[in-house]
Structure formats: structure tokens, C-alpha cells
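TICKET #2291
ISSUE: user wants both folds in one file
ATTACHMENT 1:
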Amino acid sequence: MEKYRILPHTADGKFEAFGGTLEEAFANAALALASLMWDWSRIAPKVEQLVRVEGSDKEQLLVKFLGEIVYLVETRQFLLGQVRKLEIRPHFEGLSLDAVLAGETLGSGHEIYGDVKAVTYHELAIEEGGPGEGSRVQVVVDM
């Protein structure tokens, strides 16, 4: 199964990500986000970052999760290479997401070719299929 697809957009970045489960689609959305800025497949899993976000619904949870990756890039120069673990669970007032991200700290050997400024709700879509159908998310980011 294809992990993600970059879609045409007039001014910003747009992608859709796929997975057999919603968690896998969210993890692949993280890789799609990274692919707009660097080649995540060339990033070694040397450093782990733990991420926990809460949201009132799946859409808010996805925006907050991807926003955390943008935050980690900006504040810790963390380059995502893989999503080692991602769990979505019901929470007191909605949903929570716990993820273990692996990657490297930005260094002279890394090529950065894009800059995502923010994750938006514009054209945001989440389709969660039944058993065997898979899930899909679509995201637009400000670049």
C-alpha cells in the first residue's frame, strides 16, 4: 500500500496519507509532512522524541500531532525519519495520541528543501474505513 501522495496546490503544500488503520494513516501523514521539507528515508533513527497530544475529535488530533512535528523542527531541529509507535485512544473529553518519533538532529549533512510553517484545517479530511478498507487523511499546510 502506498504511504502517501503529494497533491497539487496553488500556494501551499497538500497531501493525502493512507493506512490500514487510522493510526497508520496518521503515521504516514507525519512522513508526508516531513517529505515536504526533507527526505525522511535518509534520516537515521538516532534520537527519539515522545509526543502526546489531545483533541476533541480526530481532525483536531491530527492537526495538533502534525503541529508538534513542525514545533520539534523549529525548536529542537529534529528531523523525523520514522514513526516507531503511534496509538490513538479515547480520552476524558475526546481523544489522545501517543507517538514515538525517531530521527536525527539537523546537521551539516542534511538537505532541507522546504519549510512548513503551520498545519491548517483547510480541506482537512479524514476517512476511516471498516475492516479491510483502510483509512485516508488529507492535509493542507502553510509553506
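ATTACHMENT 2:
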Amino acid sequence: MTTEVITVAAGTPLSSVLEVFADRVIGGIPVIDEHRHVVGMITKKSLLHLFMPEYLDLIDDFSFVDDFGVIETEPLEDFAQALFLVVDVMEKEFERISPEASLLKAAVVMDRTDCSVLPVAGDDRVLQGVVTRTDIFRAVFSPQQD
């Protein structure tokens, strides 16, 4: 588990979150309230899905497309980014695991839900950290230190 976690508040402008994602190699950010309760998640995957053209999902066979460069998204203008807050785009339904959960449980939940970041919080929903696929990979494949 990673305990030093970047978090955001629900009222944070989306432009600030986009800067964090652009500067860091992280897949998601827990959204917390003033008591550090996890109230949502904002992920790179959900943001890309939100702002990328949806019609690509409708194409079963895209091998006929020679140049994906013709399928461009409109960049979000600065003023449009400022209009969105984290609360507008965060995932309100998300998986979390308890601090007592096993490594295996975290791996299974991540695999079954296709999420790359799991908030770690008990029944009180107070954020204690996050588990990422990288954390699981390191725990399984890194040599044990004595």
C-alpha cells in the first residue's frame, strides 16, 4: 500500500487535476472530504473516456481506418476546464478495500473491476492509502529483504 497519496477535494477545478495527471505517473486520485473520507475517485481512464470521441466504441472493426490522425478530439480550452470541478466528473461508485484485506483480494478486485488504483479505507471511509497494480507487482515479484 502507498500511504503518501495525492488527493483532491470535490470542489477542485478540473484543470488542476489535469495538471497533476500530466506531471505524474499515476492512474487515479482519491477524492476526499474535509475529514479525509473517500467520496469518489477520478482516474485517467474515466477522463479519457469522458473527453474522447464515443463513436470509436461503436466501431467493431477499425482495421479499415488507415490514419487515426483524422479522428482528432477537440482540445479542452482553458475556460472549459475551469468550468468543470472534480465533483462533476468523479466516479461516485468505486471499489475500495479495507486495510486488513489481503494482497490476493486487492489483486482480484482490481482484475474483476479493471481498476488500476484502489483506495484503502475502513468502514469509516477514512483514506489510509491506495493500492496500485505496481504495488501488487512489487510485492509479488520483488526480492524479499531480510
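RESOLUTION: both attachments delivered.
EXTRA DETAIL ON ATTACHMENT 2: The chain is about 35% helix and 15% strand.
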